[in-house]
């Protein structure tokens, strides 16, 4: 069978080879969306694969796995990325990491770059592919695993922890300390996002509050996921007239910001305010007081994600159960909730 060339793609798409190159290389000149769609469709139909690696590798994938994270500055993503690197090394693979900064265009940029390098597969941490990214993935017939995010499509392959159950555990534990209610510091989304772990954390909080017969009305607050912005939100919340007796945070980095705000306002934790987080990042055990949080088995999750992204059989014929692997969450009790730790 003759090798498919860029000329073939250009003819099928009704455009020039230069435009095909612009689509494949994401530049240097812009391409109209409709034209890009035609080129991607032609690439998929013809099975065209551009060579960006040595000719000797033209007939197989490289020993690379592409990993896209929202923000590697956040402790959880940094620790999960490290776990993926370790798991990949066990399989003789190396990892390329890209930060999307929660921006669709950056996600697509890294997808194109990694796929052009003929990676063995892609792992997306805590984010699902955007509509444009999904188009790229489909066009390249790429192997993709979602890590730390539930799938919103039946054929997605994902590795997750029990985010809803973990948040329920933490909220119940705070209520068992006798607090009349527990407030929740969620994310910045105004509407729930299917599969998003923070959405699931909020849902777990809601369920635990409902089980205890407590209202959640006016007790869910929005904050970015980093400690610095969460600190600013917490300063305003804790200095106000309706200071909550206990707070569960969607991620540990937010909880670290809350602890800093409480210290600055001279609010005793846990005497006057109980705090819990989610993720059990390494720093959680070093805060003052040490942070009660929800943990997951990151090394096991990373190994599962790497195994799945390298396994052709699961992608073609895996059952729903094989495609979605859920690991249990566990409560790590330290002093910020009121326990001795």
What does this structure look like?
By secondary structure, the chain is α/β, with parallel strands linked by helices. The protein folds into three domains: 41 residues, no CATH class; 130 residues, 3-Layer(aba) Sandwich (Rossmann fold), CATH 3.40.50.2300; 142 residues, Response regulator (Rossmann fold, 3-Layer(aba) Sandwich). It is 43% helix and 14% strand. It contains 13 helices and twelve strands. It has a six-stranded parallel β-sheet, sandwiched between helices. The protein has a four-stranded parallel β-sheet with strand order 7-6-8-9, with helices on both faces. Helix 1 crosses helix 3 and helix 3 runs parallel beside helix 6. The longest helix is centred in the first third of the chain and has 16 residues. About 2% of the residues have low confidence.
Quick structural summary:
Keywords: DNA-binding, Transcription, Transcription regulation. The chain has 341 residues and is an alpha/beta fold.
Quick tags:
341 residues, alpha/beta, Rossmann fold, 3 domains, six-stranded parallel β-sheet, four-stranded parallel β-sheet, 12 strands
**Helix and strand run:** HHHEHEHEHEEHEHEHEHEEHHHEE
Strand order of the largest sheet: 2-1-3-4-5-11
Total number of domains: 3
Unreliable stretches covering 5 or more consecutive residues: 53-59
| CATH level-1 class of the largest domain | Alpha Beta
What would you say the CATH architecture of the largest domain is? 3-Layer(aba) Sandwich
* Strand segment tally: 12
CATH level-3 fold name of the largest domain: Rossmann fold
Largest sheet: 6 strands, parallel
Tell me, briefly, the overall form: elongated
Mean pLDDT: 88
Number of helices: 13
Assembly form of the protein: single chain
Helical residues, percent:
40-55%
Q: Could you tell me the radius of gyration in angstroms?
A: 23 Å
CATH homolog superfamily of the largest domain: Response regulator
How far apart lie the N and C ends? 67 Å
State which percent range the strand residues make up: 5-15%
Please state the structural category.
alpha/beta
């Amino acid at each position: 069978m003759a090798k498919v060339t860029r000329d073939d793609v250009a003819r099928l798409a009704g455009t020039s080879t230069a435009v095909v190159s612009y689509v494949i290389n994401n530049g240097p000149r812009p391409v109209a969306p409709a034209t890009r769609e035609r080129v991607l469709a032609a690439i998929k139909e013809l099975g065209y694969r551009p060579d960006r690696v040595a000719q000797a590798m033209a007939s197989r994938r490289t020993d690379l796995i592409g990993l896209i994270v929202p923000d590697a500055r956040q402790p959880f993503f940094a620790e999960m990325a490290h776990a993926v690197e370790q798991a990949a090394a066990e399989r003789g693979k190396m990892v390329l990491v890209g930060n999307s900064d929660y921006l669709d265009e950056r996600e697509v940029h890294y997808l194109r770059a990694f796929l052009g390098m003929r990676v063995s597969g892609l792992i997306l941490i805590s984010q699902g592919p955007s509509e444009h990214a999904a188009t790229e993935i489909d066009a390249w017939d790429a192997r993709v695993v979602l890590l730390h995010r539930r799938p919103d499509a039946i054929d997605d392959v994902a590795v997750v922890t029990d985010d809803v159950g973990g948040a329920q555990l933490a909220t119940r534990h705070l209520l068992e300390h006798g607090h009349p209610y527990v407030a929740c510091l969620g994310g910045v989304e105004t509407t729930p996002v299917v599969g998003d772990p923070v959405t699931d954390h909020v849902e777990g909080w809601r369920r635990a509050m409902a089980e205890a017969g407590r209202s959640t009305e006016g007790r869910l607050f929005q904050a970015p996921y980093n400690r610095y912005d969460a600190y600013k939100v917490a300063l305003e919340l804790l200095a106000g007239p309706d200071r909550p007796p206990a707070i569960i945070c969607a991620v540990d980095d937010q909880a670290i910001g809350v602890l800093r705000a409480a210290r600055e306002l001279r609010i005793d934790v846990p005497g006057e305010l109980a705090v819990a987080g989610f993720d059990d990042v390494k720093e959680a055990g070093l805060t003052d007081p040490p942070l009660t949080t929800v943990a997951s088995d990151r090394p096991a999750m990373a190994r599962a994600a790497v195994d799945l992204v390298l396994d052709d059989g699961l992608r073609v014929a895996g059952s729903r159960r094989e495609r979605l692997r859920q690991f249990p969450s566990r409560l790590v009790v330290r002093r910020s909730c009121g326990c001795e730790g």
